Amino acid sequence: MENCELEYGAAARLKEGVLDPDLCSGCGACVGFCPYIKSYNERVAIIHNCQICDGVCYRICPRGFTQYTSLRREVFGAVDFDPVLGVNKEIYFARAGEEEMRSCGQYGGVVTALSAFALKDGFIDSILMTGGNLKGTKPVLVSSTSGVAKCAGSKYTAAPTLSLFQEAIKNGYQKIGVVGRPCQVTASRKMQQAPEINGQRISLVIGLFCMGAFSPELYTLVKEKGLENCDRMDIPKDVLFSSSGEDTIIPYDEMRQFIRNACLSCYDPLSELADVSVGSTEYDPGWNALIIRTTKGAALVEQACANGYIEINPYPSELLPLLKRAVFRKKKRVLGRVDFTYLNLPAPEREYFLSTGDDD
Ligand SMILES: Cc1cc2nc3c(=O)[nH]c(=O)nc-3n(C[C@H](O)[C@H](O)[C@H](O)COP(=O)(O)OP(=O)(O)OC[C@H]3O[C@@H](n4cnc5c(N)ncnc54)[C@H](O)[C@@H]3O)c2cc1C
Ligand code: SF4
Ligand code: SF4
């Protein structure tokens, strides 16, 4: 790899363009293969300014400059796409087939069920997931279906899940799955373009919906309020912490201050580059919204249905405009921000959001 005399190596670009302006989403992609980049308590720091010009750290960072059109083309080929929902083949209400997976899942347990099936059926031989609780998150490299279930449930902070990718490589895994937030999905797709870190071994990307993650200060608040032993957190509207059926509700307006800065300029609430994207239905907590995006995603869902791992129903047509409106508003808001500079979007896509009113 080229070694440049100037101070502007990839690490410097990462520091000046992403870390210093607090635009790091905490995905963990740059951590793990480089001894000079460390993650502690969901914050990332460079401890030595290496001079490699074409270092992979900046290239795979979802907040590093990204040619979105070519990345989309790498994943989907040259296909038409909906500027709001992204490329999508089908959209469903879905839930895990087995009660056990439904009950451990955040909503319908679809991510748990699809991940377990993908491992069992050989779509993947391992998967990067996120465990932990309200005392802190923990990236986990999983290779068994029982390990998948242990990671069920949403942790609403920015766990550096991808930091374990090199661990998966060291363990010899060839078909690595990822469950991640949209920023982690983008990073995974950029990693697939980086043969020097064996990124092509990422074989399946299950993306979550995500409107924002809380910064690690959430844990301080949780501790102060004595909520760290709660077994569930959710954000139906306000923020809900549940313990043995008892709920503590904190108004969202009080929690807004903890949203991670990077999330304010995030253009992708639906994991647009994933094989499948999974979120809440905002309507029935026993079910998930499921978007199928790629041929591989379609095959996974079809076979998971055929084997009883998940059930699917049509997405109610009256609810789709609500999902689209929420996503439209987020994207439009982000396009208006001065710090939204990392994605090179096609001009017609920008224009679509900027020239259309919220209620059109
Ligand atoms: C920070 C965050 C914000 C979200 N915001 C929204 C939103 O605004 N709207 C919406 O509809 N859905 C949102 N989701 C997704 C939602 O909470 C569920 O994860 C999703 O609906 C899947 O539900 P499930 O029942 O299939 O999950 P489960 O079967 O319980 O599986 C959840 C999976 O999520 C993974 N996971 C948990 N926490 C994290 C994390 N911090 N980072 C990466 N992976 C993690 C685990 O590995 C697990 O495999 C968000 C999720 C996160 C983590
Ligand atoms: S967004 Fe991800 S790749 Fe970029 S600096 Fe943060 S942890 Fe590293
Ligand atoms: S809002 Fe965007 S940047 Fe923030 S955690 Fe979610 S996907 Fe990542």
How would you characterize the overall build of this protein?
- There is one protein chain.
- This protein has helices at about 10-20, 55-60, 70-75, 100-105, 110-120, 145-150, 165-170, 180-190, 215-225, 250-255, 260-265, 295-305, 320-335, 345-355; strands spanning about 35-40, 45, 65, 90-95, 125-135, 135-140, 175-180, 200-210, 230-235, 240-245, 245-250, 275-280, 290, 310-315, 345.
- With about 350 residues, it is an alpha/beta fold.
- It has a domain at about 75-315.
- The strands form four sheets. It has an eight-stranded mixed sheet, sandwiched between helices. The chain has a three-stranded antiparallel sheet with strand order 9-10-11.
- Bound molecules: flavin-adenine dinucleotide and iron/sulfur cluster (SF4) (2 copies).
- One iron/sulfur cluster binds near residues 28, 29, 44 and 63.
- Flavin-adenine dinucleotide (FAD) binds near residues 151, 156, 157 and 210.
